[in-house]
# Entry
Amino acid sequence: MINRSLVVLLISVAMLCLGHGLSGSLVSLVSDQNDFGTDVTGFVMAGYSVGLLASTYLAPRLVKSVGHVRTFAGLASTASTAVLLFPLWVDPVFWFVLRVLTGLSVSGMFIVCESWLNTVSSNRNRGRTLSVYMIITYGSLGLGQLLLNVSDETGFVRFIIVSCLLSMSLVPLILVPSQAPSVEGARSVSLQEIWQASPLALVGVLACGLAQSAFFALGVVFGLAKGLPLVLVSIMMALPPLGVILSQYPIGWVSDRFDRRTIIMLLSFISAAIAAITLAGGYYVSRMMLIALVTAFGVVTLPIYSLVVAHANDHLRRDQVLGASAKIVLLYGAGSIIGPLLVGAVMRRIGGDGFLIYMIVVQGCLGGFALWRMWRRPDRIKGQGSDVMTVSPVTTPAGQGLAAE
# Structure
C-alpha cells in the first residue's frame, strides 16, 4: 500500500507534469503563430534539451549541497519565472535561452522527485509505486495539452497557468511528512563500456531522443499544417501520452518474456509503417483518422525508450546500472537537441509531410539496426522484469542515482 508521503509526492508530480505538458506545446504553438518558421521553432524547442543535459550535472550537485527540498524549491521558482518571461519579448534567441532555463529547472525537479520516490519506496512496493508514477506522469502530460484550449486574447493567460502549476507543485513536496532521502554514490560507466555490453542500447537511446523530442516539439506545428483547428491539435497531442498508460504495461510484460530486441524491432517498424500510411494517405486522411494514426504512432513509439533502457540493464552488471543511467540521459539529451533542429529543417523545405518522413527514417533505421544486431548476436537474453516500468523519456533516469557521474 502506498503511504501518505508517496501520495503527496505524486500530487506534486501531477502538477509538475500538467504544467510541463502545456509548456512545450504552448511555446511551439506561439512560435508558429508568430511565423518563426519550423527550423527556427526547432531551434527554440531544442533549448529544453540543452537545459536537460545541464541538469544532469547541476541538479545532483545542488542536492548534495542544500538537499532535495531546497533544490526543488529553487528550480521551481526559476522555471516559474522563466515561463512568465516568454510573452514579454517574442524573439527566437531570447526564447531559446528561456527554454534552456526551463529545461534545466524542470528536468532537475524530475530528478529530485524520482530520487525521492526511489528512496522512500521499499523493495516490496517499488515496482507498483513506479508504475503509478508512470501513469500519473503520462496522464498529466496528456491532460496538460488540453489546456491549450484556454481562451487567451492577451497572450499571457496560458503562460500564467503554466507558471502557477509549476509553482504549486512545490507546495505538496514541502509538506511531505518524511525525512529527505540521503544520496548514495555509484560507479562511473563510460559510453564505450555500454557499447560493448549492448550497441543497440546506445543507438536506441539516441534514436528515441531524435524521434520523441521531435514529436513533442513540432507535433503541434504538424497538426496545424495539416489543417486541424487548435482544439483538435490539442486532442491529437494529448492522446498519445494518455494512450501509453494502457500500452506501457502489456508491452513491458511481453518484453520480459521474449527477446527485447525483437519487441524493439517490431515497435520501430510498426511506428515507421504508421507514419508511412499517414503520409501515403495524404488528403484522403480525414481529421479523425489523422488523430487516430498519430495516437497509434505515439502509443507504439513512446514505450520504446523504456525497452531500450531495460535492454541495456539486461547486459550490465548490477554495479554499473546507476552509473550507466547518467550516460544514457546524456545521450538521450544529445539526440533530443538534434531532433527538433533536424525535423524543423526538413519541414521548412518539404512542409508538414516532412514531419512524417523524418519519423519514417528514424524509426526505420532503429528497427533495421535492431534486426542487424539480432543477426550478429543471435543469443537471447531474457528480460529482468520490472526494469521496463522504471524510466520515462519525459523524465530522467538519472533520478534513480543522483551520484551517478
Remarks:
- The mean pLDDT is 83.
- The CA atoms of residues 185 and 403 lie 5 Å apart.
